[in-house]
Amino acid sequence: MEIDWSVIPSFLPQLVAGAKVTLTIAFWGLVIGTALGFLVGLMRAYGNRVVNALALVYVELMRGTPIVVQVMFLYFALPILTGIRINPMAAAILSIGVNAGAYIAEIVRGALLSIPRGLSEAGLAMGLPRWKVLVHIVGPLAFRRLIPPLGNQYIVSLKDTSLFIVIGVAELTRTGQEIMASNFRAVEIWTAVGVFYLIMTGVLSLVLRIIEKRMRIL
Amino acid sequence: MSIIEFRKTSKTFGQVTVLDQVDLNIDSGEVVVLIGPSGSGKSTLLRCINGLEQITGGDLVVDGISVKSGNANLRQIRQEAGMVFQQFNLFPQMTALENVAFGPRQVRGLAKAEAEAQALALLDKVGLKERARHFPSELSGGQQQRVAIARALAVRPKVMLFDEPTSALDPELKQEVLNVMRQLAQEGMTMVVVTHEMSFAKQVGTRLIFMEHGKISVDGEPRQMIDNPPSDRLKDFLQHV
Ligand SMILES: Nc1ncnc2c1ncn2[C@@H]1O[C@H](COP(=O)(O)OP(=O)(O)OP(=O)(O)O)[C@@H](O)[C@H]1O
Ligand SMILES: [Mg+2]
């Protein structure tokens, strides 16, 4: 079969629709993941032994199993265990959320613990309560160190959405496969799909680069 | 009246006893210079006063408040006892002015304009008014330490605690910090100073305490003790600083 790039416009609308689904999953998944990651990261950094252990169990559970297994569990096993059925889209968003949450938790913890103790002590020594030390001193410093690894995780999670092909979510990769099944133009389609991912991750990278430049790492 | 009272105060880290039933009263207006070999417990003694280390035995009362009487009281003590660290510990994301204004705003609840006016006056006092808008990374060590002193003073403490404030500084920068401390002493500030600067101890100190193995081994008038050490250990120690 001859390679014919002119077929790409004909399936462009489908790919755009797939990319939108991918972005939707990544966006809401990362909203959940970031919130969860900050919470669990704080638990890991400052929690007492019990709180810390709980947080660690979650992190190890998520890091120790593949995301495909996690989404399969949420989509197929959870309904059997709890009787609650969720649609594929919700399962996908939740998977990204709990999975990214674990990695982000470790990023947050690392950033918090990397801030020299003397700075917290200087804050405490003036009579500040612990939460103010966190909000005004440690937090802003940790945040600057957080951005590069956080951005990296966002890119990883965005690409992880392609694995939800296994539960039939019509995201970008799945869309590519469906088009493939009808016209067998593998080279053109997978190139186009790859370019779509590159555009999305590229924009994300660029935004991160700009934020990093704006904020001095102290 | 004593502003700081150690009452059989002990501090252990696991099995290691770092402060061993210390009894010590410090009165308002005293300038206490604390010396002793490395590991003798000088920093720990200082850090127990403002609760950065928790005491494990006895009691310790600062300005009438026990360090064991809960978090709210501890914060009260910390407002009355400012601390200056060997490594300055200025907040790197804030300018000198913001560093100094930070405490009054967050702890004493001052409005921004008022806090900054006060901060500027304090920076002037330590000779750094022109550097108010500089970040710590743009200041020399001596300048950073003077900002740190101003930052501690800004909370209006009754006592100032200094843990080797000049040890991280080059010799030519030590003096500018010691001068600020001398001025503070002349104004009547109660000070507890861990230092190896014996000339400062002699000229500014009203009391010299020599610590060994978590205990106070000699306590007396700085000039006499330095010129005629009452114990061989102190004599030996003084020869090595
Ligand atoms: N957080 C800690 N955990 C365990 N041991 C500690 C801790 N802090 C201090 N120590 C121990 O307590 C002892 C006294 O320490 P401290 O820092 O008070 O001594 P110092 O007199 O200030 O010494 P230096 O002149 O070296 O600063 C040392 O043996 C030290 O190892
Ligand atoms: Mg020390």
TrEMBL record, chain A:
Domain ABC transmembrane type-1: 19-208
Gene3D superfamilies per the UniProt record, alphabetical: MetI-like (1.10.3720.10)
One cellular component (GO) term of this entry: ATP-binding cassette (ABC) transporter complex
TM region positions: 21-43, 55-78, 90-112, 189-211
Domain of life: Bacteria
Location of this chain's protein in the cell: Cell inner membrane; Cell membrane
Subcellular location, principal: membrane
Keyword NADP: no
Membrane topology reported for the UniProt record: Multi-pass membrane protein
Swiss-Prot/TrEMBL keywords: Amino-acid transport, Cell membrane, Membrane, Transmembrane, Transmembrane helix, Transport
A molecular function GO annotation: transmembrane transporter activity
Gene Ontology biological-process annotations: amino acid transport
InterPro entries registered for this protein in UniProt: AA_ABC_transptr_permease_3TM, ArtM/GltK/GlnP/TcyL/YhdX-like, MetI-like, MetI-like_sf
SUPFAM superfamilies linked to this entry: MetI-like
Record keyword Membrane present: yes
Described purpose of this protein according to its UniProt entry: Part of the binding-protein-dependent transport system for glutamine; probably responsible for the translocation of the substrate across the membrane.
Similarity field: Belongs to the binding-protein-dependent transport system permease family. HisMQ subfamily.
Name of the protein in question: Glutamine ABC transporter permease GlnP
UniProtKB/TrEMBL annotation, chain B:
Family matches, as InterPro entries: AAA+_ATPase, ABC_ATPase_HisP-typ, ABC_transporter-like_ATP-bd, ABC_transporter-like_CS, MetN_ABC_transporter-like, P-loop_NTPase
UniProt xrefs under Gene3D superfamilies: P-loop containing nucleotide triphosphate hydrolases
Pfam families reported in the protein's UniProt record: ABC_tran
Keywords: ATP-binding, Nucleotide-binding, Transport
GO molecular function: ABC-type amino acid transporter activity; ATP binding; ATP hydrolysis activity
ABC transporter domain location: 4-238
Membrane-spanning ranges: none
Keyword Plastid set for record: no
Keyword Nucleus assigned: no
PANTHER family the record matches: AMINO ACID IMPORT ATP-BINDING PROTEIN (PTHR43166), GLUTAMINE TRANSPORT ATP-BINDING PROTEIN GLNQ (PTHR43166:SF14)
Protein family according to the UniProt entry: Belongs to the ABC transporter superfamily.
Name of the molecule in the record: Amino acid ABC transporter ATP-binding protein, PAAT family
Organism from which the protein derives: Paracoccus thiocyanatus
